[in-house]
Amino acid sequence: xIEVRSVTKRYGRTVVVDDVELTLPAGGLVSIIGPNGAxxxxxxxIVARLLPADAGSVLxxxxxxxxxxxxxxxxxxxxxxQENHLxxxxxxxxxxxxxxxxHSRGRLTTTDEAHVDAALExxxxxxxxxxxxxxxxxxxxxxAHVAMVLAQDTEYVLLDEPLxxxxxxxxxxxxxxxxxxxxxxGRTVVVxxxxxxxxAAYSDRVxxxxxxxxxVQGTPAQIMTPEALHAVYDMDIAVHDVAGAPLAAYYV
Amino acid sequence: xxxxxxxxxxxxxxxxxxxxxxxxxRRRLWLTATCVLLAVLAVLSTFVGVSDVRLGSLLxxxxxxxxxxxxxxxxxTAAILLAGSTMAVTGVVIQMLVRNRFVEPSTIGTTESAGxxxxxxxxxxxxxxxxxxxxxxxxxxxxxxLLFLGVLRSVPVRSVVTVPLLGLMxxxxxxxxxxxxxxxxxxxxxxxxxMTGDFSGIVAGRYELLWAxxxxxxxxxxxxxxxxxxxMGRDVATGLGLSYRTVMALGLGIxxxxxxxxxxxxxxxxxxxxxxxxxxxxxxxxxxxRSLPWVALLGAGLVLVxxxxxxxxxxxxxxxxxxxxxxxxxxxxxxxxxxxxxxVG
Lengths: 252, 345
What we know:
Chain A is an alpha/beta fold. Helix content of chain A is 34%, strand content 28%. In chain A, the strands form 3 sheets. A 6-stranded mixed β-sheet of chain A has the order 6-7-8-3-9-10, with helices on both faces. Chain A has a 4-stranded antiparallel β-sheet with strand order 2-1-4-5, with helices on one face. In chain A, strands 11-12 form a two-stranded antiparallel ribbon. In chain A, helix 3 (92-98) runs parallel beside helix 6 and helix 5 (110-122) packs antiparallel against helix 6. Chain A starts with a strand and ends with a strand. Chain B has one domain (26-197, 206-339): ABC transporter involved in vitamin B12 uptake, BtuC (Orthogonal Bundle). Chain B has helices at 6-12, 21-45, 55-60, 64-98, 110-124, 130-154, 162-184, 188-195, 210-222, 224-231, 234-239, 244-265, 272-284, 288-312, 321-344. The longest helix of chain B has 35 residues, at 64-98.
């Protein structure tokens, strides 16, 4: 369980995350949605202890992220930031293998190798394992980073806009892969998304933020109403029922 | 004995899947071959010089050739190998810490600061023993490197090219301060002996300090994975449970101390830490556990070749290796910078 307790973050005078209270039970796929500047990425970074909160605390399975030793947390929680351009030249396999660092400290055991192989397989990267990252397309690179985070073999997996740079096909593949990570591998996947239809179609739970606060949260059905979406995006969005699933027509 | 003892099996199979074993094997073969080549080059280099040292004279005469070999040639070759591999390794470490390919100790002010520190201690406490002077140089090198990082942090726009340019400017400023002080104090020659690498003064008893850098290089190798992870950035390092600050401090400490020792014993070897890691990165990538042996070997090899060139090109006089390296390195640096920036642009 991830518990966010009265977390506040300011940049100068601007309050980016405003006294947020949030409880995410273990298991399943949780999407965090909201307009630009809503504080989604900042909140995710605070949960992943990449940013310190100005006030409040975050507990992951009861461990306060601000005070728990980094390596202990690294075996419970993995995170992928939005911008993950690397200046180091690594092969896909090397990158994914570094996901095992919290467990192996760089000396890979047979178990570590098995996790690396499984993560590569899960993301369909087995054939590209020997390639250098700079020889891959943006989408393949994105998948390699996700594979690294999966290889870390943590209960919680936090991903900040993993659909960035992905075309329709790969975006859907990525969402299906995350769904499988939750269903088959039993991970708790928390993901920041922009496309509310992807969020609705694949998530167990949606958390909607605006101006640094959680505005609405609940099941996709609860979020996908014109009223709720208006509260989040300040737009009139019609929601249609397409083959039994809600689809927001926000294009026109 | 029907079964192998468990320890032995552990040694033989370092947890690698069979499919990957041939690649690792081939890599090891190449590495061994390069080692042998470097060793042969090193042995041959001991026969190059003004004084006549040949296999025949070594066996026949009463000891002059042997003295030259033991007191001058062997120490010189050892110093070359140690300094060369260390400066290449410090280059790759600082590149990981700064996350930029185009920096190395002599282009971000580390080396210049060590020189300035030495100059100041020579002026203020000329009688200080070598370890004391060295400590001052190391602290100055660290301060210079931190100054560079501080300047970097305060600059809003960070592009691949502005980082090394800032470093070169900072080096230039520190170098100018040193030159000014040295000029006033009539120490220009002394300063130039630190700022221009030269192995001609290396004799037994005057280079042994360099073995300390071999230890530092070994420490880098043992902690290689940490530097690779830090090279992936603060967020990745934190996410993997690594203390970014600790690794940063370790790396900066090693780079500063190693640079200071090399400056004191040999003098600056410009561009070495830049050219070698970039070439290795193109060939073998940046997973330091795998690439560091190559960086060390090629660094040693390049300095060895440049030194022999310096000894031969104006025979019987010598061109200081710093000059040869400066020419070779500057050309290679420009090439890499232009090639990369067109890639990015």
